[in-house]
Amino acid sequence: ASIEQILIPRSIKTIIKEYYITNILKNAFNSSKIKYIQFSSDLKYQTIEKNAFSKSEIESIIIPSLIIFIG
């Protein structure tokens, strides 16, 4: 079964450290089958690079106003 929905969190925590998600890199979701994408509402600054979602099957994406750059 493929994943159809994803929430991109503010950070990922490990036992040692918390890593803040600040970029969605080029081709990160290229050709993915994900239908719905939502970003955490409390994220740090955020950029979405060019072609991050190219050739994907996204039907809905919720992008918070804190996104400062979309390539």
General description of the model:
This protein has 71 residues and is mainly β. It has strands at residues 5-8, 11-13, 18-20, 23-24, 36-39, 46-48, 60-62, 67-70. The protein has no helices and 8 strands. The strands form 3 sheets. A 3-stranded parallel sheet has the order 1-5-7, with no helix packed on it. A 3-stranded parallel sheet has the order 4-6-8, with no helix packed on it. The protein is globular. It starts with a strand and ends with a strand.
What topology does this entry show?
Layout: E1 5-8, E2 11-13, E3 18-20, E4 23-24, E5 36-39, E6 46-48, E7 60-62, E8 67-70
Parallel strand pairs: 1-5, 4-6, 5-7, 6-8
Antiparallel strand pairs: 2-3
Short description:
The chain has 71 residues and is mainly β. Helices cover 0% and strands 37% of the residues. It has a 3-stranded parallel beta sheet with strand order 1-5-7, with no helix packed on it. A 3-stranded parallel beta sheet has the order 4-6-8, with no helix packed on it. A two-stranded antiparallel ribbon has the order 2-3.
Would you list the SSEs in sequence order as H and E?
EEEEEEEE
Determine the strand fraction and express it as a percent band: 35-45%
Number of strands: 8
Distinct helical segment count: 0
- Overall geometry comes to globular
Give the rounded overall mean pLDDT.
Answer: 88
